[in-house]
Write a structure and sequence with these properties.
By secondary structure, this protein is an all-alpha fold. It is built from 15 helices and no strands. Helix 1 runs parallel beside helix 6, helix 3 runs antiparallel to helix 7 and helix 10 runs antiparallel to helix 11.
């Protein structure tokens, strides 16, 4: 089960998410569509994923992940083939919106729900392993996509990627995710009220607000890091290395999360990581150099991002136990996914009015500071952890 989810996370993220970032310049050059239009289509997929994830979480709570993730794999292949064959921009948009349904059914959220139920109480270790594997998606598929696109058109590249994915996705989801799904996944001592009660609680929505503001900052920083380096006079290669090494820091951060979780409470851990993310953002934006120091700061920011991924994955169980994890996680993830979709546009719109990328990074740091303060109101109750 665990190796299967590791493999499918690499493939799903690599083909549906990371390949677009490599192919988009070729797409716009070949079709004449604007980069804003193609990026908007991709962002629409993330928004669809955010909305569909709420329903996916409820289904997984009731029936388990096997059918949902297998169907999502099929949907993902079909959607990418539609994108590859799209003769017009509206068809391209439709393909990406269908891929949003695939994202909701195959990305981290359903995998986290499966591991939380099947691996509890050792689910943090399982979640860490899967996110480490997911972190390899860009390492594997960005170079692979670039290599294919060097010999094929972007359409043929997408078609090849889509057609080689079924052998790794369908059997893994259909055959490996076949363990009995727990009907009573939590004990009364750990269950802290019904799902409806939790959904309506101020604590839940304060947590959702804090994580959404933090997610917006994280994704805006990733999008704006390369332009920031270019504005400071560094080359595209130097900027790309800084971004890539930040990804390496993200992997490192995920390996450290279990230790952090053992030594801190859920509320303290949430506030600490979000606040550190704000400090790292401010440092990257305000420190002009030298280059080695900026790379180190980018890696530090990546380390915090890696921790934040697992922080969100465990936020529900830390506060309300494992009952209704899929349903509550879907609600919690929806606004953060929407923030990820809107961050590229919002950060671009914000840069001009505030006077440049360094100032924009300072604003993002203030947003993280606000999120950290809000997170202090998300203390778990004595019955939940």
């Amino acid at each position: 089960m665990l190796p299967a989810l590791c493999a499918t996370q690499i493939t799903s993220w690599g083909i549906v998410y990371y390949a677009f970032r490599v192919l988009n310049p070729q797409i716009t050059a070949s079709t004449g569509w604007s980069s804003g239009s193609t990026t908007a289509a991709f962002s629409a997929a993330l928004l669809v994923s955010a909305i569909a994830g709420i329903r996916v979480g409820r289904i997984i709570d009731q029936r388990g992940p096997r059918t949902v993730m297998t169907a999502g794999s099929i949907r993902g292949v079909i959607s990418i083939l539609i994108v590859a064959a799209a003769p017009y921009l509206p068809v391209f948009l439709a393909g990406w919106m269908l891929s949003g349904l695939a994202m909701a059914a195959t990305f981290y959220q359903p995998a986290f729900a499966a591991l939380t139920q099947w691996w509890a109480p050792d689910h943090v270790r399982a979640l860490t392993i899967v996110t480490l594997a997911g972190g390899l998606a860009s390492t594997v598929f960005a170079p692979l996509t670039a290599m294919l696109s060097g010999h094929l058109s972007w359409r043929m590249t997408y078609a090849v990627l889509a057609l080689v994915s079924p052998p790794s996705l369908f059997p893994a989801h259909a055959l490996a995710l076949n363990a009995p799904w727990p009907k009573t996944p939590d004990t009364p001592a750990r269950a802290n009220g019904s799902a409806g009660t939790v959904e309506r609680s101020q604590r839940f929505w304060m947590l959702a607000t804090a994580l959404t503001l933090s997610a917006f900052t994280v994704y805006a920083v990733v999008v704006a890091l390369v332009p920031l380096f270019l504005e400071r006079g560094y080359s595209t290669t130097e900027a790309a290395w800084a971004l890539g090494l930040g990804g390496a820091g993200q992997t490192l951060g995920r390996t450290l999360h279990a230790t952090l979780a053992r030594r801190t409470t859920a509320r303290a851990r949430t506030a600490l990581l979000i606040a550190l993310g704000g400090l790292a953002t401010a440092a990257v934006g305000l420190v002009p150099g030298p280059y080695a120091l900026l790379v180190a700061l980018s890696m530090a920011a990546g380390t915090i991002r890696g921790n934040l991924t697992l922080l969100q994955a465990t936020a529900i169980t830390d506060r309300w136990g494992t009952s209704h994890y899929g349903r509550l996680s879907g609600l919690l993830t929806a606004p953060t996914t929407a923030a990820a979709a809107l961050a590229p546009f919002a950060s671009a719109a914000l840069t001009g009015p505030v006077g440049g990328y360094p100032q924009m990074f300072a604003v993002l740091a203030l947003v993280s500071g606000l999120a950290a303060l809000i997170s202090l109101s998300t203390k778990p109750s004595p019955t939940s952890c």
